[in-house]
Write a structure and sequence with these properties.
This protein is mainly alpha-helical and about 170 residues long. The protein has two domains: about 100 residues, no CATH class; about 60 residues, no CATH class. About 50% of the residues lie in helices and about 10% in strands. The chain contains seven helices and six strands; from the N terminus they run αββββαβαβαααα. The strands form three sheets. Strands 1-2 form a two-stranded antiparallel sheet. β1 and β2 form a beta hairpin. The protein is elongated and about 60 Å long.
């Protein structure tokens, strides 16, 4: 069903109903990020964007049959007047939150934040698991673990160099 929401956002963006933000050195226009069942809309400060988001979400409800719980949704701002933010949040029937906000339950600069990912990698690549695999299968296992396990964390946060070293120094198979 995420494809339906992505398609709706693409269409709204294509016909200039939703104005995204320019990100990075190459100024890539971004208006939505998704992971699993979380969706993050990024837009310029304009009431038209709020109306477009509301329309997109309503169309998604009608097309998918799912009900969006706006009271669980949150809105954050960067350089937006307080009055505008209050108006936008009321229009979307959502609550406000402060920036920076916690996602995935912690501070990515701290070692404890990365420990679950490091432990998963270690468990999947423990010495006993690859003992009876051919060299080609071991390499395949190592590559898949290093691609799949950190995907969630590294799609949002830049890992500290110390964590990358810690992961790479682990005994592999």
């Amino acid at each position: 069903m995420a494809e339906n929401l992505t398609g709706l956002v693409r269409q709204a963006h294509k016909v200039n109903l939703l104005q995204g933000v320019k990100v990075g050195r190459h100024e890539v226009d971004v208006c939505m990020l998704q992971f699993a069942d979380d969706t993050l809309f990024l837009c310029e400060t304009a009431y038209d964007n709020v109306v477009a988001i509301k329309a997109i979400m309503r169309c998604y409800e009608l097309a998918s049959g799912f009900k969006i719980n706006f009271s669980k949704s949150k809105m954050a701002d960067i350089n937006v007047e307080r009055n505008s933010l209050v108006c936008f949040a009321k229009s979307l029937n959502c609550t406000q939150m402060m920036v920076p906000f916690m996602y995935l339950g912690g501070n990515p600069r701290k070692k404890q934040f990365w420990e679950p990912m490091v432990n998963k990698i270690s468990n999947k690549l423990s010495f006993g698991k690859g003992r009876f695999l051919s060299l080609a299968r071991r390499i395949c296992l190592i590559k898949s673990v290093f691609i799949v396990v950190p995907l969630l964390y590294l799609s949002f946060f830049k890992a500290p160099k110390s964590m990358c070293k810690n992961i790479m120094q682990r005994r592999l198979l």
